[in-house]
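Batch job 17 of 40 flagged for manual review because the log was empty.
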Amino acid sequence: MSNQGFSVEYVSSGECCSPLIREPLSVDRSADFARMFKALGDPVRLRLLSLVASHEGGEACVCDISPQFDLSQPTISHHLKVLRESGLLDCERRGTWVYYWVVPEALQQLSTVLNAADPASDGAALVTA
């Protein structure tokens, strides 16, 4: 995943302008976002992310989250690997267990790119399909 920061510009009205509507995404940024959104497109992975994020202390051992699913340990590990490779989770091995936590910057990037300015405030129109 690219380590480029996502700047947020303020327009004259004081409203924040999302990178998505300010200018077209670059090829690299599009690929980064697609990986993250694809990872979140699976209900198990979305739930795993939620369980890790909401766990006490902001990190969870795989042993704490695995019992929440009717899936095998290798399947859980695969889903956690996809979340890690997409940049949404990070982890650390402690003894025989692996602890996971959410990468706040990744969630902020997703939030920023989707945060569209209020169309009424600056005359911008949002296109919906």
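Reviewer: the log was empty due to a logging misconfiguration, but the result itself is present. The mean pLDDT is 80. Unflagging and moving on to job 18.
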